[in-house]
Give the backbone structure.
Amino acid sequence: MLKHQLIHPKINEVLGRAGHHSRILIADGNYPCSSTLGPNAELVSLNLSPGLPTCDQVLKALLTAIPVEKACTMMYETEGPYALDGDPPVWDDYRASFKEAGVDVDLEPIDKWDFYPEVSTADHVLTIQTADQQRFANLLLHIGVRMD
């Protein structure tokens, strides 16, 4: 029986094969998963219904199972019809989840058009598609080294 909070069999299988520097994308409901999947990545679609689950709910489960050394987010637009004034609200949720899990990482924003190539690398092992409807909720995690 697993002791952590992540019980999805396919996600656990992929994480069991992953190693240091492997990348996991937690994708929101708007992210084009099928066209940006890395050559070695698997796609797990968890999008049950609008808003369920959220990217932060998936993050909380993952943080019980893997060490995270880096977290990158898609940079939001500051001009144009989708512009935001300040960080997207979901980023505060991520920061709180990292803090609650005792993970000391900063969110590193990446420009939208640079984010897609960051995801579709050989180190990308898993995309978890959520039904999160928040804008700019995509989160790319880099697995760290287990120290205990």
Summary: The first strand starts at residue 23 and ends at 27.
